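Write out the bound-state structure for glycine.
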Amino acid sequence: MKVLIVGSGGREHAIAASAAKSSKVEKMYCAPGNAGIEEFAECVPIGAMEFEKLVAFAKEKSIDLCIVGMDDPLVGGLVDEMEAAGIRTFGPRKNAAILEGSKAFSKDLMKKYHIPTAAYENFTDPDAAIAYLETAKFPIVLKADGLALGKGVLICQNFEEAKEGVRTIMLDKKFGTAGNEMVIEEFMTGREVSVLSFVDGKTIKTMTSAQDHKRAGDGDTGLNTGGMGTFSPSPFYTKEVEAFCNEHIYQATVDAMAAEGREFKGVIFFGLMLTEEGPKVLEYNARFGDPEAQVVLPRMKNDLIEVVEACIDGTLNQVDLQFEDNAAVCVVLASEGYPVSYEKGFPIQGLEEFNKHEGYYCFHAGTKLQDGQIVTNGGRVLGVTAKGKDLKEARANAYAATEWVQFENKYMRHDIGKAIDEA
Ligand code: AMP
Ligand code: GLY
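---
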């Protein structure tokens, strides 16, 4: 079959690498893709939000299956547009992608269906938000309602900071229209775990767990980023935690969406916090995580295309989802200065090394082909991933592989997966 993947990051590279292993795929395209995805798919210069062009392209090439990797086009309704044109598409429709697209919606859903999450209030009026903060307990968490590249969350230590935060989100509109509405919620403490799942509208099958390192610097210091590395599985995601989430969170979310007339098909990403009172939902995403996909998909034994089709067809209950009994670590190679300011356009050496080693992957995030040479083209450049028999080995392998790649202003964290040593 002919497959079109929509997106351009390390996640889409991991999806393409996984899909390429399927005997069902005869030709793959990616819009807009990147220099690494080119290895598996023909990249076409159409942006992920150019819906009309994407649909026209899919029709022209008789695409049999479209996989939407990114959040923006999902929340914007690309799946609906593709389906209206008769293209089978993997991902939630607009009315279900709101699970990620509106934090106020997702919080109300969890409250209504008794899914454990932090206590909260929603606000559309900045004065009302400030009045609420006057009697609130600190620290407290402010969240812009809409999509904000993972940056619309402010943790405030006192009233003054929080008041400033309300201004930033709702009046200065630092996160654009995402800040028209806002959630103020209780600050929680605990370990964070990411659990991705496949959903067919009724049935949910969770994948192996993962954990992200969001801060730019070693020891979880510095600014928040899109993610500096991941590992899978998380040793903190025990059988007990999993059993609790199975009972109170996963199926409950799928059933709640169905009950609301918003049948969810695609991937639900559960951002969980393991608090003293038990696991609680920090956030939902309506897609694979980036860079979680880079450590989860390489460990999946199933044919990705078969699982994706089962989600679309509503036959996921017949799929036996299986993961390798090993571990994976992804270390992001970034441009020095990310996430604030950085130079790009530097040639990258050593990429060919990855084809010589089984169990090693170099997923491209911000690269491009320039005069026949792959050069850096973003803050996060590459996701160097390696498997190992356990997390310790996977981590040693991944860090060894980071040495294979050279480019000017290469920056990485040195402690990805280190929390595991404490487990
Ligand atoms: P979110 O985009 O909602 O996952 O928030 C981004 C990050 O902010 C999370 O990964 C947490 O580290 C932190 N965070 C979000 N909500 C809370 C909360 N209620 N309590 C503590 N930390 C939070
Ligand atoms: N790694 C977090 C995310 O994909 O949202």
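---
The mean pLDDT is 96.
Residues 118, 141, 143, 150, 153, 185-188, 192, 271, 282-283 surround adenosine monophosphate (ligand 1) (CB under 6 Å).
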